[in-house]
Structure formats: C-alpha cells, structure tokens
C-alpha cells in the first residue's frame, strides 16, 4: 500500500522509540530494530507525532517549520518500506478479539510494509476452513495451534487416538468419547468452529468423502497410520479439487513434511515417483499396515507448529513456503535439517497435463 493511502500513520506498536543524542532508535536493548541518524534533531518531532492521531496532511502542517512536505513524504516512505509504519484506522474487530489475538497481531506486525495489514491477516484466518486428518501427537497439537490462531472452521477426523493433555478425557472408552473430550477442550476459550468425527479412512473414497464434507481451503494430513496409501488418497482428492495439502510425520526421531499446491507444485505422486526417488518408492510400497508415524512429546509439538506455520506461508502469503516442491526433513536429536527437491512431473498420472508432459520431455 502506498504511504499516500494511509489514513493515520503511526510507528508500529511493537517498536519502542528512544530519542537519543543526534539519533533516534526504534526498540531498545542489544537487539534493537534500527537507528536513524538525526544530527540536527529535525526528524524526532516527526517520530513523536507518528502516534496514529494525525493524517499525513496534519503532519505536514505541524512540521512545516522544520521539514518540507517532500521531506515528510520521503521519511514516511522510508519508514514504511522498512516495515516500521502501520495505519491506525480502527480495525473491524471486537475488543475481545483484539485482546485474544494480541500475540498474533504482534507477529503479523513484523511481516513488512503497511500494506501487509495485521488485521487483514487475522480476518483471513477467521474465514479459513481447514481439514485435519489425524488427531494423534502431531494432529492434536495442530488443532490447538489452529484454534490459537483463530482459524474459523476446523473439521477433523481420526479413528482411535486423540492426545490432549486434558483431564476431561480420562476414562474415555472409545474413539468417539476421546474425540468429543478433545473437541470440548478446544472449544473452551477459542472462537474456532471445531468438529471431529471418529471414522477410519480405509479407501480413496473415504478420504474424498471427508474432504467433500469438510469443504476446506487447506488439508493438513498427519494420520497415525501413515503408510503412504492415506497420503496418496488425500493427495489425489486435493489435486482433483484444487485444495492445498500439507502433510507430515515423525518416525524414529526424524520428522518430514511436504506440501502440494495444485496447478503449481508437484504432488505426492511426483515426490515418490520411481524416476525421482526409486529407493523411497520401494520402501513405501512395503509399508502398508505399519504404524511408523509415531511422534512423541516435544517432537510432535514442534513438528505440528512447523506444519501450521507452513500453512500460514501457503495461505496468507506471509513468506515463501519452505516446502514448495521440497521435502523437509529434521532430525529431532541433532536438529539437523535437510531439503530434497522435487518438481511437478509432466507425465504424473495425478497432476500432469499434456502440456506439462511436453515440458518434461524437453
């Protein structure tokens, strides 16, 4: 957004202002954000007046004895380009929402120029629908993170385990009981419309039916029985419907994650295609019926929040996604990280097209 379109510019509330001798510092301490040279003291008045109570025209009028209108424009432009300004227009959010999502808004405040409105990001999250497949160690933490972010609607599915640290679920005797206890836990103190169903995904049709029922903008797949077949089914359904998919697992202390953006990135089938990764494809074909998505403790929580942050990158565009055409792997013992590149294959039977195939052969 152009500075000229601001209504009432102000220094972002996350930045403290120190007026020092011959310089202005934004934020205090060793890790301060920036320092602006001001040997004549002409710009400190501008910084003081940037409290969100004045329009740009009013600022120019009040500063005309020390700064020209052009100097005011240039200073505002530099501050905005550096990510220090925001517009103080009243957000269309309730006081409870502003207080409840204060941490989110402070985080969004860091993301760049004023055009990246922190309120716009929060509103986008409120309108977002997420389908969550799996409510084990990773999935339950994903659900909590989505609720904390203020995601509008979450529809989840699992068939046997829900891992919430909630005493209300003690004594549960069935998957339905545990899911209901987990849902009650999430509904306490959060605005997210959260619902879960206890059912198995045994076939491709089951995955497609869940996605159709959930009508999500993005699907997060962290199913406990991550034997490759569920990922294939979810991948195919998401590609067919143009829905973003993010998937992850943790096994033997190693976490992995990837994403699929239909029409732009490669898909799961491209990732495991024999042409690109024959060893991985061979191993995957032998794992049906195994239960190797066993996350525990901090690893599951860490990986869940990584997946949710990647969802923010993909849906809000706050930063380039880390998993676009890349498989991310992390060793939770050493915290070593590795990326494996893959690409959209023209001959892919799931996401390829005739034109893609021609490009793939060139």
TrEMBL record:
Lineage, opening ranks: Bacteria, Bacillati, Actinomycetota, Actinomycetes, Mycobacteriales
Naturally occurring in which organism (per UniProt): Nocardia arthritidis
Listed Gene3D superfamilies: 3.90.930.60, NAD(P)-binding Rossmann-like Domain (3.40.50.720)
One annotated Gene Ontology cellular component of this protein: cytoplasm
Domain of life: Bacteria
Pfam family, one: ThiF
GO molecular function: nucleotidyltransferase activity; thiosulfate-cyanide sulfurtransferase activity; ubiquitin-like modifier activating enzyme activity
InterPro entries linked to this entry: ThiF/MoeB/HesA, ThiF_NAD_FAD-bd, Ubiquitin-activating_enz
UniProt name for this protein: THIF-type NAD/FAD binding fold domain-containing protein
Domain called THIF-type NAD/FAD binding fold: residue spans: 119-344
């Amino acid at each position: 957004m152009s500075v000229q379109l601001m209504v009432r510019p102000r220094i972002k509330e996350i930045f403290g202002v120190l007026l020092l001798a011959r310089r202005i510092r934004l934020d205090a301490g060793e890790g301060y954000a920036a320092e602006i040279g001001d040997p004549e003291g002409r710009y400190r008045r501008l910084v003081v007046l940037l409290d969100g109570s004045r329009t740009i025209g009013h600022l120019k009028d009040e500063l005309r004895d020390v700064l020209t209108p052009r100097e005011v424009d240039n200073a505002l432009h530099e501050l905005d380009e550096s990510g220090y300004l925001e517009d103080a227009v009243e957000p269309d959010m309730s006081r409870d929402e502003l207080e409840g999502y204060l941490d989110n808004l402070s985080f969004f405040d860091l993301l760049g120029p004023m055009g990246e409105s922190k309120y716009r990001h929060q509103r986008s999250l409120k309108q977002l629908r997420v389908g969550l497949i799996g409510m084990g160690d990773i999935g339950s933490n994903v659900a909590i993170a989505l609720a904390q972010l203020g995601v509008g609607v979450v529809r989840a599915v699992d068939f046997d385990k829900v891992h919430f640290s909630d005493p209300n679920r003690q004594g549960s005797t069935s998957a339905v009981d545990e899911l209901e206890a987990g849902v009650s836990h999430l509904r306490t103190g959060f605005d997210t419309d959260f619902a879960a169903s206890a059912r198995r995904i045994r076939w491709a049709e089951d995955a497609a039916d869940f996605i159709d029922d959930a009508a999500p903008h993005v699907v997060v797949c962290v199913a406990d029985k991550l034997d490759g077949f569920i990922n294939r089914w979810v991948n195919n359904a998401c590609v067919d419907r143009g829905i973003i998919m993010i998937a992850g697992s943790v096994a033997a202390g190693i976490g992995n994650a990837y994403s699929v953006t239909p029409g732009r990135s490669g898909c799961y089938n491209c990732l495991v295609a024999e042409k690109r990764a024959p060893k991985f494809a061979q191993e995957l074909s032998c794992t049906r019926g195994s239960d190797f998505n066993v996350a525990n403790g901090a690893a599951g929580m860490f990986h869940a929040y990584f997946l949710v942050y990647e969802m923010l990158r993909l849906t809000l565009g706050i930063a380039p996604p880390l998993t676009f055409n890349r498989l991310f792997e992390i060793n939770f013992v050493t915290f070593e990280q590795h990326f494996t590149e893959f690409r959209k294959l023209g001959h892919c039977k799931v996401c390829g097209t005739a034109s893609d195939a021609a490009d793939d052969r060139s």
